[in-house]
Every structure is written in structure tokens, then in C-alpha cells.
From TrEMBL:
The keyword Protease does not apply. The chain crosses the membrane at residues 380-400. This is NAD(P)-dependent oxidoreductase. CDD domains: SDR_e. It comes from the Bacteria.
């Protein structure tokens, strides 16, 4: 019978990968949360029947709705975590893994770090202490470009000149897959004593070096920085909530970075059998694979826009042509890749032959040429409809065509 593993916060960046990894390893994963079978939210009293028979509980959920300075008895992140841990021990669950952070400090600048520290204190003083294992997690990267990792990758890739704070602060990157492996080890290993473990690279690097790695891994040049004071950065965070079309930055993230300090992780990594990868190598490989997948998706969308059901031969021809002409990837949005007909709004006028999208569509037409000439012609009615569509769409195309030039 597969061991039963309960995960809270399974829809988050780390939680989703952890749940998927656990299932790959043949665990019977039970997800606690609003979108899961167990209708539980942090702060709720868990049903004993939902906990009984579990090999472990891994607690990743965190409520951001709690008032920053809420008293401990009113902070559901504190009371809710202790309640869940004590219920797990009462139900006979042998291990309770709490996901903390390397920002967990009594004097942390951000509320998140101080709250995590208070939770750790309450857990170790609770009746659940004998089953508690605390995982202080470093700067997580890899996998889907979401959460803090996605924001940093986007900022590093936007421009060679980046205003930033905390450039000399030391950070400890660790890959998402390594975090999942570490959490599963904490949940299942019987030879580990209840204590605090640090899941982070043992060799800290400066935040400036980390951003440089993110940029170079995307195949872009050197990154130059404009150091800015913390007060200005916090003001800019507030402005991102008001200005559309730019990433929103939570001040908590900025304060967490401003107060970052490395933690000793070598012993934890040794005990858990983890050997974190070099971030440069891991990210270069990941970005290259992602770009290849995006390029394939773009080639498929271009052919579908031309009314062609792509064949493997056509896709290969077009992929090679786009790479040869320096058009891969084009940077089509996921929405356009899923709905190729929307490309009609971005196709440039016929005389814009050097437009990147126009060149890509020309290559798509060439890649499908043998099959297209053997296909049935659309006839006069189809030609009239095509011309009418071009006339009606011309104003929009003139406005939007610059998006992919």
C-alpha cells in the first residue's frame, strides 16, 4: 500500500512541484486546501479522519490575508500551524514538516520572516514538538517562471540596465526539484532527529551575481546595475500597484531581500543526501529547453494561422528556418499560441517585408508549400472573403503590428 502524504499549499510554486514529485514516487498524496477534497483552510480544525494513517504532513500553506502586526493569538499562520501540527500528532502521524524560510529571524525586516520565526518557536514549544521537522528554504528557482523566481527572471531579462537594491546581499539559491526532494526526505526518513534543516546552497553568492546568472542563462548579455536606496524601492513597489502593464512587486519581497543573510546549510544537505546543482548550469539547460518548446509552439501556431494542420515534417522545416533566420523564438504570447487566429490582429501590412512576424509567416508559407499546392483551392468566394477580411483588419493591424516587429 502506498504511503499517504498530506500536503497543504499544494497549489503554490513549491507545493505543486512537491505534489507532482510525490506522486511520481508512488505516494498517495492528499491535498489540504480550498480546491482539494479536504475542504481545509489554515486556521481550521482538521478532521481526525483526514489525518489518520498519514505517513507525514508537509505544511506549505501561508495566509497573506492576516494583518501584519496581528497579535499571536489572532495570527492564523501561527495558531493554525500549531493547531494542525498538534492534531497530526494526536492522530498518530509520525512526521510534521513545516516549510519555513532562510529569512526566518527574530529581527527580520519583513513580516513574513518574523512570522516564520514565531511559528518555529511555537512549534518547538508545543505538544507536537517530537514530530516536528523545520525546513528553512533558500532562494528557490527553476520550473515554471512564477512567484519570486518568475519575477526575478523577467526583471533580469528586460534590460541590460537594472535599478536594484541589496546588490551585495548574499543569497543561497536552490532548485525547485531539490527543495521537493529535501521535503520528501524530511517527511519519510526515520533516522533524522526533530530539528531545523536548511535547504539552500552552501556557497552563498551576491544578489547582483544571482541576477547576472538569470540574465546570462536567457542568452542575453551582461547586466549593469543602478543601486537605489531602500526607501525609493518601497515607494516604487507601491507605484507598481497603480501602473498597468508592469509586474507588481510586493514590498515584503523587497524587505526580505534587504534583510537577507546566509545560513549554514552544509550539514543539513549532507544529512538529507542533497548536492545542489550549480545554478548557472541548471538554468542554462532549463532556459534552452523552454526556448525550444516555445519555438515549437510558435511554429505550430504560425502554420495553423495559415489554415494548415501541421505535420511533423512541416514543423521541422519551419523550426529550422526560424532558427536559421534568427527568428526563434518570436516571443508570441501564450494566448496567441493557444489561439492562432488572433494573429490576424498583429499581421503587418504586405509592404512590411522586414517585420519579424511577416518574415516568420513567409517562412511558414514556404515550409508548407508542397502540401499547400496539392491541396484543394479555396475558390473565388474564399478569395473575396480573404480580401474583405484584410481590408477590415487593416486599421487594427496598423496599430498592433509593432508588437512583434
Amino acid at each position: 500500500m502506498a504511503p499517504r502524504l498530506i500536503i497543504t499549499g499544494s497549489t503554490g510554486y513549491i507545493g505543486a512541484r512537491l505534489a507532482a514529485t510525490a506522486r511520481e514516487r508512488r505516494f498517495d498524496v492528499v491535498e489540504f486546501g480550498r480546491g482539494s477534497g479536504a475542504k481545509w483552510r489554515i486556521g481550521d480544525e482538521p478532521a481526525v479522519s483526514d489525518l489518520e494513517g498519514a505517513a507525514a504532513v508537509i505544511h506549505l500553506a501561508h495566509s497573506w490575508a492576516t494583518e501584519p502586526q496581528a497579535a499571536e493569538e489572532n495570527n492564523i499562520n501561527i495558531s493554525g500551524t500549531v493547531k494542525l501540527a498538534e492534531a497530526a500528532r494526536a492522530a498518530g502521524v509520525p512526521h510534521f514538516v513545516f516549510s519555513s524560510s532562510t529569512s526566518s529571524r527574530r529581527e527580520a525586516l519583513n513580516v513574513y520572516g518574523r512570522t516564520k520565526f514565531r511559528i518555529e518557536q511555537h512549534l518547538t514549544a508545543s505538544s507536537a514538538a517530537p514530530i516536528v521537522r523545520i525546513a528553512r528554504i533558500g532562494l528557490v528557482y527553476g520550473g515554471p517562471r512564477v512567484a519570486m523566481y518568475g519575477l526575478m527572471a523577467k526583471l533580469a531579462g528586460l534590460s541590460p540596465l537594472l535599478p536594484m537594491i541589496g546588490l551585495s546581499r548574499k543569497v543561497q539559491p536552490i532548485h525547485l526539484d531539490e527543495v521537493a526532494a529535501g521535503l520528501l526526505a524530511l517527511a519519510t526518513r526515520e533516522d533524522l532527529q526533530p530539528q531545523t534543516f536548511v535547504l539552500a546552497h552552501e556557497k552563498p553568492i551576491s544578489f547582483a551575481a544571482w541576477l547576472g546568472i538569470l540574465r546570462r542563462s536567457q542568452g542575453k548579455g551582461k547586466l549593469h546595475f543602478i543601486p537605489i536606496p531602500l526607501g525609493f524601492a518601497l515607494f516604487a513597489c507601491r507605484m507598481t500597484r497603480l501602473v498597468p502593464l508592469i509586474p507588481t512587486v510586493d514590498p515584503e519581497r523587497v524587505l526580505g531581500l534587504a534583510g537577507a543573510a546566509p545560513m549554514e546549510s552544509a550539514e543539513s544537505l549532507r544529512l538529507l543526501g542533497l548536492n545542489p546543482a550549480d545554478p548557472t548550469m541548471a538554468l542554462t539547460r532549463e532556459f534552452a529547453q523552454t526556448d525550444q518548446e516555445e519555438s515549437h509552439g510558435e511554429a505550430k501556431a504560425l502554420l495553423q494561422y495559415l489554415g494548415i494542420t501541421p505535420t511533423p515534417v512541416q514543423l521541422q522545416r519551419l523550426d529550422e528556418g526560424l532558427r536559421r533566420e534568427g527568428l526563434s523564438p518570436l516571443g508570441l504570447s501564450p494566448r496567441l499560441i493557444r489561439n492562432p487566429r488572433l494573429l490576424a490582429f498583429f499581421e503587418p501590412p504586405a509592404d512590411h517585408t522586414q517585420h519579424r512576424l511577416a518574415r516568420a509567416l513567409y517562412l511558414a508559407d514556404l515550409a508548407s508549400e508542397p502540401e499547400r499546392y496539392s491541396a484543394k483551392k479555396s475558390g473565388l468566394f474564399g478569395a473575396v472573403l480573404a480580401i474583405a477580411g484584410d481590408v477590415l483588419l487593416f486599421p487594427l493591424r496598423a496599430l498592433l503590428a509593432g508588437r512583434y516587429r
